[in-house]
Amino acid sequence: LDHRAGGYDVELGWTGEVATLKKESEWTAPLAVSSHRKEDSTQRDLLSYTGKPLSLTDHTNDVVAETKAILDALGISTKWSPPLLTAAQWHDVGKSFKEFQEMLRSAAGEDAPADVLAKSGGKGGSMPRWRKHFRHELASALAWLTHHDGTEHADLIAYVIAAHHGKVRLSIRSLPEEQPPPDRATDLMARGVIDGDELPEVSWSGVSMPKTVLGLQLMRMGCDEKGRTSWLARMIALRDEMGPFALAYLETLLRAADMRASAAEAYRTA
Fold it and tell me: Assuming Cys at both sites, which of 37, 77, 164, 192 could form a disulfide with 131, CB separation 3.0 to 4.6 Å?
């Protein structure tokens, strides 16, 4: 919106009133952004890097503990505590993805835990170019649904897992430059995940998951061949049932727990 169109007052904020200012000197000057990271909103994953490598089990335990502390402090209804704690348990299992582990271990050093890593000691490696937008939280949400679709609060748990970095919410979509490798050129792809990708068998924080194939059929409209409704339809129904503010609030609780846990982990390794 052109700043000369009116509707904004420097003292009152947005008023919606038609512009009455006649002199250019009275116009509100547009704000300039001093710096901008081109792909900050799609690529960055700074919480995966701390001063010391950390296993998936240790980080998950920390996030679950922080989630419990937040729920207790806020007195959240017991109806929502179990799904949030389950989301905390599953929120980072997507990091077990082979190429993500290779990236973390490339900078983890010789003292890295033998278990699946959730954190690296520093930034070093990178994902293959066709995976540069890889979002581990989408892989985590898909893995959760693969094994728990149809259970109570399954869609809510999947949403909170997928949204805990603010990158995936109501829709699963490919980014403009995403292109799978030539040998998988016809496969669906979104946020660095390709339909048919696999997570290995993994055990962490009291949870065990067999080798899991990640399916992206949920990003299509309508139902898939198994009769499952799309991600978009599920999440819109969830939003309409709970309301956008309640859904955003629950998302925020896990995000806060993850950030608090990560900050404490970084402090311990400093």
Answer: 192
